[in-house]
Design brief:
heterodimer, A: mainly beta, 11 strands, B: mainly beta, 0% helix
C-alpha cells in the first residue's frame, strides 16, 4: 500500500501561537510532498511543494514566512503555522509523491481551529 | 494545466454502475487524467489515472475518448460507501507533479 499519516488529526490553539503539523509516508519514500488547505464547502487549494533537503516552493499568494515547511527526511515533512489567527482555521492536508511513481497519496488531514 | 469541467452533482442507485463524466477539451498530449475522490472530512483517495488508453483497476475503470477531450470514470457496482466528491484532474507530465483540484462532482449513492 501507500499510507500517509498526519499528526495531529485535529488541534485547537489560541490566536498568536504556532502550530506544527507532521506528514509521514509510512511505507514508502517520498522525496516530494505537498501541502493543501481546504475551507468548508470548498475544494483543495495547493499551498506548497516540499522537497527533501531543499526549500519549499510556495504557490502564489501563500505567505512563506507564515507557513513554514521543513522536509528533513524522505518520510517526513512538517508544516508550521506561525502566529496563527482565526482566519487560518482550516483543514490542512498533505500528500506524498511515491518515488519512481507519478501518483500522490494523501494523508487524512488535520483540522485546525484557532480561537 | 488544462481545465476540467464536471457536473456539480450526480446520483445513482446502490448496485448500479456510476458513470462520472469529465470534460477536458484543452488537454494536450503530455497531460495525464487523474481521478481522486474525497469522502467527507477525509483526505482525497487516489482512484486511477491514464494518458490515452483506457485503464482499469480494482476500484474503477477510466474511459478516455479517442480525441482525449473527455473521459468517464466508471464505478461498476456502486455502494453507499462510494458517496463522495469525485475530482477529475489534468496534470502536466512534468517534474512538478502538481495537482490542481477543481470543484468536482458530488456523487450520492442511494440505497
Amino acid at each position: 500500500g501507500a499510507v500517509v499519516s498526519q499528526h495531529p488529526s485535529w488541534v485547537i490553539c489560541k490566536s498568536g501561537t504556532s502550530v506544527k503539523i507532521e506528514c509521514r509516508s509510512l511505507d514508502f519514500q517520498a522525496t516530494t510532498m505537498f501541502w493543501y488547505r481546504q475551507f468548508p464547502k470548498q475544494s483543495l487549494m495547493l499551498m506548497a511543494t516540499s522537497n527533501e533537503g531543499s526549500k519549499a516552493t510556495y504557490e502564489q499568494g501563500v505567505e512563506k514566512d507564515k507557513f513554514l515547511i521543513n522536509h528533513a527526511s524522505l518520510t517526513l515533512s512538517t508544516l508550521t503555522v506561525t502566529s496563527a489567527h482565526p482566519e487560518d482555521s482550516s483543514f490542512y492536508i498533505c500528500s506524498a509523491l511515491r518515488d519512481n511513481q507519478e501518483t500522490q497519496y494523501f494523508g487524512p488531514g488535520t483540522r485546525l481551529l484557532v480561537l | 494545466d488544462a481545465k476540467t469541467t464536471q457536473p456539480p452533482s450526480m446520483d445513482c442507485a446502490e448496485g448500479r454502475a456510476a458513470n462520472l463524466p469529465c470534460n477536458h477539451s484543452t488537454i494536450s498530449g503530455n497531460e495525464y487524467v487523474y481521478w481522486y475522490r474525497q469522502i467527507h472530512s477525509q483526505g482525497p483517495q487516489y482512484i486511477i489515472h491514464g494518458l490515452k488508453n483506457n485503464e482499469t483497476n480494482e476500484m474503477a475503470s477510466l474511459i478516455i475518448t479517442e480525441d482525449r477531450k473527455s473521459s468517464t470514470l466508471i464505478l461498476p457496482h456502486a455502494t453507499l460507501r462510494d458517496t463522495a466528491v469525485y475530482y477529475c484532474i489534468v496534470r502536466v507530465r512534468d517534474s512538478s507533479y502538481k495537482l490542481i483540484f477543481g470543484s468536482g462532482t458530488r456523487l450520492l449513492v442511494r440505497p
